[in-house]
Amino acid sequence: MSVTQSTLKPPASLSRSAAAANAAAASFAALTEKLSYLNNEGLEMVRRAYRYADEAHLGQLRNSGEPYITHPIAVAAQCAEWKLDAQALSAALLHDAMEDCGISKTDLIERFGIQVADLVDGLTKLDKLEFNTREESQAESFRKMLLAMARDVRVILIKLADRSHNMRTMGDMPRAKWARISNETLEIYAPIAHRLGLNQTYRELQELAFQHLWPWRHQVLSKAIQKARHRRRDLMQKVEQEVSASLAKIGLKVRISGREKTLYSIYKKMDEKLLSFAQVTDIYGFRLILPNVIDCYTAMGVLHQMYKPVPGKFKDHIAIAKLNGYQSLHTTIVGPSGLNVEFQMRTEGMNLVAETGVAAHWLYKDNGSSSEANLGNKWLQSLLDIQDETRDATEFWDHVKVDLFPDAVYVFTPKSKIMAMPRGATVVDFAYAVHSDVGDRTMAAKVNGEQVPLRSELRNGDIIEIITSTVASPNPAWLGFVRTGRARSKIRHHLKTMAHSESQELGEKLLAQALRAEGIDQMPALEGEHSPLWDKLLHFTGSKTQGELLTDIGLGKRVASIVAKRLATLLSDTGLKPDALLLSRERFTAHENVSQGSVTVDGSENASVQYAACCRPVPGDAIVGYLGRGEGLVVHTDQCGVAQRLKYKDSERFIAVEWSDEPTRTFEVAAVVTVSNGKGVLARVASAITSAEADITHVLMADEVSGQEALDLRFVFSVRDKAHLDAVLSNLRRVPAVLQAQRVVSGVGR
């Protein structure tokens, strides 16, 4: 349906029919017929507002040639459909008075009170101010309108009524304005209407924008719908009769109404999923209005007994309402001739809220009471919170757009606070957005009540619950998937602080080990009689504090044996001689790497201990430790080629390392699997690895050469220990297509 817009013509009856319909409705007499819910005082206020607006707009005409006052009357009539109060109706009649007629806010306050004046002011554009760009002007206008809306939702209701009437009469406007106004409607006003639950207005705005933005496409789809409707009329009537009869048989009172997808929603589905019209199967549906909630579930059960439900198409928005308050049961069934038919089941109250959203609250409020108390929509309050963070209009609008445009998402805390997150943001990003302490102590998370991985991406409407623990801390792996700068900087800061603490502990352990090799059993205390000794040692090393010295040792910036020799010399000067027995025992066993001072590793270490990627040691391997300069302790297998070269150049930086009896996690290992080239080989090899309870973290397959009989598949997977690795390799060798499977070390594997 790619049609050049310049060649399109508007629907022939578009301008005339819309103008005629609105001219008939836009008279004050027609408006007063809708105001029976107002008391005499309210009715008089609306009459005064009408007279004042009529006088202010005297002589002004709309593009259709009608008196301008017909537009404010039509806007007020729409507000009356929502049963808004006299103040809102007066503001609707006066909404263009400040902008077009030069009337000041002070004039309105004197005549109609501060609330009406504030409503009108919130609706007034800022054309009198100078802006650098049109975008900046538009952003400031929306900022003002949205902030006024956050304080009083009647502002946006009047604005949406205003936009609806302008869209209905757009045929009278110059064609050059159609695209801009229609795009603005689709991108801003329709999403706001949807966000506030004004679904009837939302659908109308989309349809009118579609009709004026792509008239020819609208016409083609409209004709296609009419033909399909005619062809399937008998089928739909049959479904309706069968459902009515079945529900009547069990005594359920129900009001059934047919419903049809809007043309715009059909067009969007075709465009996004690259479907033809014939491939869109869920065009038709029915709405069942029932007396109470139990009846809704009963009716759904009856439907599922009558027809086969379509898997994955059942949604319970009664138990879990949408963010805008929408409640309904949805299910799609396979009807006669394989026709998919959607059913929505709801009560009268739910139907009212579903169609009019926040506007439905006026039907329940006390006369003259503030609408804010009944709104209960946290999104409006969040606009004020965003305003507190930035006073720049463009930045404010960028924040607000996260809920209206697809490049960002809005999520909820368990207490219903709305938080704007960039699209692609994860649970960890959310935790840090709540508070840095929450992010640092994150242990697990639930999304919509179900536990999920911390790397799970957020979606619009998710309710996120962060589970924290006092012993939890940031994981360096988080940096691989977080999206926000705040989360990234907080994680890095915490890891840096944590690495400092761990490196100090490691440095203390290494220095104690080196002192034992010098025959000193106990490290001298910092305070007391050995305080001057530490001062001399710090002067020798150039460190400011004992903590800094130990951290430098743990990071490999200083060699523990050199510091220990100096410390032993200083102790000897004070008269403390080395223990000859300890000295001989340490030196005798040092070459066997069984010294009592060796460092034990179990995988729970963070930044202070690294496991070399060249050889990927696992529990059960013979290992050695290398104190890299500034890297902390790096653990290698003792047969690793890289470690052998380092030992030749820098042997004094190697220390004894041994595995703990109970490692705390799995360890990655690399393997190369040579296979016979054939269909499905990769899947069979991967299955052999996972069936041996190993988790695959990386796969690399060499480029296939035509006619090549054998391929090398390179895997990185996690195992518990060397015995587990041997079991995985044995499992692989049993696969018929596998020619060879072996572990890879010294950087060959990845």
3D architecture notes:
The protein has 30 helices and 20 strands. Strands 1, 2, 3, 4, 5 and 6 form a six-stranded mixed β-sheet that branches. Strands 12-16-14-15-13 form a five-stranded mixed β-sheet, sandwiched between helices. Strands 18-19-17-20 form a four-stranded antiparallel β-sheet, with helices on one face. Helix 3 packs parallel to helix 5 (86-94), helix 5 (86-94) packs across helix 8 (114-123) and helix 12 (199-213) packs across helix 13 (215-231). Mean pLDDT is 76; it is low at 1-26, 126-132, 363-376 and 590-597. The radius of gyration is 37 Å and the shape is elongated. By secondary structure, it is α+β, with helices and mostly antiparallel strands. The protein has four domains: 5-212, Hypothetical protein af1432 (Orthogonal Bundle), CATH 1.10.3210; 222-363, Beta Polymerase, domain 2 (2-Layer Sandwich), CATH 3.30.460.10; 495-638, no CATH class; 667-744, ACT domain (Alpha-Beta Plaits, 2-Layer Sandwich).
- Low-confidence stretches are 1-26, 126-132, 363-376, 590-597
Number of domains: 4
Structural class: alpha+beta
* Shape assignment: elongated
Number of strands: 20
Our Rg estimate from Cα atoms comes to 37 Å
CATH class membership of the largest domain: Mainly Alpha
What average pLDDT do the residues reach? 76
| Beta-strand residue percentage | 15-25%
CATH topology of the largest domain: Hypothetical protein af1432
Q: What is the CATH architecture descriptor of the largest domain?
A: Orthogonal Bundle
The CATH superfamily name of the largest domain is Hypothetical protein af1432
Largest sheet: 6 strands, mixed
What's the tally of helices? 30
